[in-house]
């Protein structure tokens, strides 16, 4: 599968719910700042309103081989289609009350920046290369080729508290649509009493 966007999801192993995200619902986001691809530093815990943060293992680069056996690791394949789906639905998410949208991986900011530019993402990617957020929240991870990578999940965060977790996420290109469907049924009630 040379094209990062053309994926036959039926040919890939589907990730199973291993319970590794069960503790996240209702959890407070720790006060950890992450470097963003737009050059800022973002502390999810300090953000007001509603935030959607999707975690993904790693974005591949055209012409650079993925780790050996990548496609057969359940949930590994599909980071580019997932990011593009959130890109394509960013306006829909805003209309449904999402104030902040981010992708998070353990890749460094340089690799993330290449992906954000190439994919024309209208939101920043956040780097947790030092695993500070991953460790503090005990996010589900996998070890691939000597690197600790995040398993794919999406969090809806309201005023620093995780109110909904999507895990496992499969197929990845449907992730944004799944979040939108949930948001449509669970409008955000702001502190002022508005929607």
TrEMBL record:
Matching SUPFAM superfamilies: Thioredoxin-like (SSF52833)
InterPro entries the UniProt entry points to: Peroxiredoxin_BCP/PrxQ (IPR050924), Redoxin (IPR013740), Thioredoxin-like_sf (IPR036249), Thioredoxin_domain (IPR013766)
Alphabetically ordered keywords of this record: Antioxidant, Disulfide bond, Oxidoreductase, Peroxidase, Redox-active center
Domain named Thioredoxin: residues: 23-188
PANTHER family per the UniProt record, alphabetical: BCPB PROTEIN, THIOREDOXIN-DEPENDENT PEROXIDE REDUCTASE
Protein name: Peroxiredoxin
Organism ancestry: Bacteria, Pseudomonadati, Pseudomonadota, Alphaproteobacteria, Sphingomonadales
